[in-house]
């Protein structure tokens, strides 16, 4: 029987990334380098009218707020 492979855990967001994610959720501007970092993590995506949270972004924001 093969051992089950566990999905890798995601790294926690830094304080600056969490704040930037909250700003994106509220429609506030964020530094371009943070947009790129959050996009690379897959928690925001470009939309026609700006940036929006992905489903993972909503989950990360919700769990970071719960801590």
Question: Strands, helices and their partners?
Answer:
Blueprint: H1 15-26, H2 32-41, E1 44-47, E2 50-53, H3 55-66
Helix pairs in contact: 1-2, 1-3
Shape: globular
* Count of discrete structural domains: 1
Q: Give the distance, in angstroms, between the N- and C-terminal Cα atoms.
A: 38 Å
Strand residue percentage: 5-15%
Q: Count of DSSP helices?
A: 3
Sheet with most strands: strand arrangement: 1-2
Please count the beta strands (DSSP E, at least 2 residues each): 2
Mean pLDDT: 86
What Rg, in angstroms, do the CA atoms define?
A: 14 Å
> Low-confidence runs (pLDDT<50, min 5 residues)?
none
Helices and strands, in order, run as: HHEEH
Largest sheet: 2 strands, antiparallel
**How does the helix and strand content classify structurally?**
mainly alpha
Query: Helical proportion?
Result: 40-55%
Overall description:
This protein has three helices and two strands. The chain has one domain. The chain has helices at 15-26, 32-41, 55-66; strands spanning 44-47, 50-53. Helix 1 (15-26) crosses helix 2 (32-41) and helix 1 packs across helix 3. 51% of the residues lie in helices and 12% in strands. With 67 residues, it is mainly alpha-helical. A hairpin with a 2-residue loop joins strand 1 (44-47) and strand 2. The chain has a two-stranded antiparallel sheet. The protein is globular and about 50 Å long.
């Amino acid at each position: 029987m093969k051992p089950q492979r566990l999905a890798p855990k995601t790294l926690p967001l830094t304080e600056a990334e969490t704040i930037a994610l909250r700003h994106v959720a509220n429609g506030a501007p964020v530094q371009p380098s943070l947009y790129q970092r959050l996009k690379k993590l897959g928690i925001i995506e470009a939309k026609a009218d700006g940036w929006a949270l992905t489903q993972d972004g909503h989950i990360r924001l919700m769990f970071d707020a719960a801590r």
